[in-house]
Amino acid sequence: MIESKFFKIKKNQKLIEVYKSIEKNKIKNKNLRVAIKFNKKGNVDGIMSLGDIRRNIINNPSKLIYSLLNYDPAYININEKKKTIIEKNIKKKKIKNISDIIITTKKKFLDIISFNEFFNNFHFSSITIVGAGHIGVPLSVFLLEKINSLALFDKNPKSLSDVKKMKLPFYEKGLTKILKKKLIEKRINFINDLNSINSNIYIICVGTDVKKNKINNNNLIKLLEQISKRIYKNCTILIRGTLQVGFSNSIAIKILENGSKLKCGIDFYYGYIPERLVEGDALNELKTIPQLISGQTDECLKRVQAICNFFFPKTIKLKSCAEAEIIKLATNSVRDLNFAFANEISRISNIYNLSGFEVIKKANQDYPRNNIAKPSVGVGGFCLPKDPFIFKKLLKNKNDGYRLSVSREVNSLATMENLKRVIKIKNKYLKNKKIKILIMGISFKGTPETIDIRNSVSLNLGLQLQKYKFHNVSFLDVMGKKIKDRFKLKIKLCNDKDLNKQDIILLTNNNPLYKDIVYSKLKNNTKAKKIIYDFTDMLDENLCSAIGYVYKKL
Q1: Closest of 407, 390, 387 to residue 214, by C-alpha
Q2: Nearest to 205 by CA among 131, 307, 139
């Protein structure tokens, strides 16, 4: 019961009288925490903790308790959804002195909770997501399933504007519908000035970058420096973007401690919870993929675990932030290595006029010790092209890092090698002819669907082919217009009705819809030679040959 938590002060009571009554009541009620004065309307007028009563009674036993009460206690009005207790009532300069918090509606006293209870109840927390991009936006709408509101920060006003207008530079299944609902409900507070934020939880969705083949932590360092000036006792800082191994311990903690003048693990908490979701299905995987959680100290890990267990259904507790940093980079590096191995097999097979797909398929067939990946036109996207490079240089010792980053060299060369293969087959069958080439797929991958063109090998291959004067290159993509308009691409789009006008069709994207388009729209070719180059191994060679096409695959 609420009444068991407080002692109601009577008019003109002396401090000693209140103390004796409380001590008498505490024999029956161990939950008793504070003395409260109510006004005529039944609202809290003033409050005094048991500790303050004991400290004051030594020198002022006969003093009226009314004169010693805190008449401006910290409180939460649960009807106020736009502003939280952190933003309105607990200021940086006062937070260390708060022991109890009053919970009210506009007209009624509801409860009293301790400061620790408040910080462990994430419904009352003020959360800021830093970075309105591929990681931050899906995470924001996911967290809003459990809390009423949060802040979304980005230093680029256009990024925030695009989110408000739902003009996202990526596609996530089901995201726009949920985002629209949250925007209508005004549950996202858009901010591009960190100085206006007083959050107690920051989730940083920005990480280590690679620019011009050099590791770049500048953006992340600047963000941490800014946030360090905003944090106060009991704040939690979580990083979600990719980190160089050793960044948490060697850089992040030092910046946060120096800027805040607080001690990590004692005054504030730090953790690394790397994002490792497949782009296009992030909202589903946030519910199903275990979240890796780590903390700088044991106390940090307890705090991080409490937060993540509140929001995520599955977590995996790690021994250190370094372990999380290694796992994140290892996950993408091994995928890049697998694809590089497959592309090398395909390259060697092609020298002997063999299909890499067929060689690998037969090598894997009924042989449980083989699980060789399929070759591809190249490896794109944001993470795989950079993470092996980041993994190569540890902050502790840059010469002892990941030694298999040769996968980057192999996969980077794959697109140009496949360009040469297309030119070679064109010259063999369509020599001295201005030809039409169709690239099926613009985004960097086909499943799950995305409009992301970062490091897209399909787009790169098409742009390289455009440089040849005898080529008329166009693109077909199920989200083609959206991609072209969103990124202002200078490319020619066509639809499935133009399929039969093409001399060469390059199937570079593994979206199964392209297989359906080819099978349903492609007519018998009875005139000049036409070619299908299948970089996905989705089409049937016999069927393509039967309708008069030269069929080639990796």
Answers
A1: 390
A2: 131
User: What are 454-510's pLDDT values in tens digits?
Assistant: 878 888 888 888 887 677 899 998 888 888 888 888 888 888 888 898 999 999 988
* Contacts (Cβ under 8 Å, ≥6 apart) of 372: 338, 341, 342, 345, 360, 363, 364
Closest by CA to 501, choosing from 480, 476, 482, is: 476
Q: Which residue's structure tokens are 């001399």? A: 503
8 Å CB contact between 51 and 26? no
Both tokens of residue 386?
A: 């950079």
Q: State the DSSP code for 197.
A: -
Cis peptide before 448 (omega within 30 of 0): yes
Report the alpha-carbon distance of residue 543 to residue 549 in Å, rounded: 9
Quickly count: other Cβ atoms within 10 Å of residue 52's Cβ.
Answer: 16
Whole-number Å distance between alpha carbons of 341 and 414: 11
**Helices of type H across 107-156:** 115-119, 136-143
**DSSP three-state, residue 51:** helix
> What does each C-alpha distance from 525 to 451, 499, 500, 550 come to in angstroms?
32, 12, 8, 10
Measure the CA–CA gap between 441 and 439, rounded to whole angstroms.
6
Inter-residue contact 192 to 178 (CB < 8 Å): no
Return the structure tokens found at 57: 């009674």
Q: Which tens digits make up the pLDDT trace of 291-330?
A: 999 999 999 999 999 999 999 999 999 999 999 999 999 9
Helices (H), 352-505: 356-364, 387-392, 406-429, 457-466, 480-487
Separation CA 101–CA 121 (nearest Å): 12
* Rounded Cα distance, 391 and 65, in Å: 63
Proportion of the chain above pLDDT 90, given as a percent: 35
User: Which amino acid, one-letter code, is at 480?
Assistant: G
Flag whether pLDDT at 93 surpasses 50.
Answer: no
Q: Which of 332-336, 359-363, 480-484 has the lowest mean pLDDT?
A: 480-484
Residue-wise over 140-177: b if at least 16 C-beta within 10 A, else e? bbbbbeebebbbbbbbeeebbebbeeeebbbbbeebee
Q: Is the distance from CB of 171 to CB of 177 less than 8 angstroms?
A: no
- What is the rounded distance in angstroms from the CA atom of residue 531 to the CA atom of residue 436? 11
Give Cβ neighbours of residue 166 (< 8 Å, ≥ 6 apart).
Answer: 176, 179, 180, 183
Tokens encoding 75: 């409180």
Strand boundaries in 278-388, DSSP class E? 291-295, 315-317
% of residues, the chain, pLDDT over 70: 91
At 509 the pLDDT is: 87
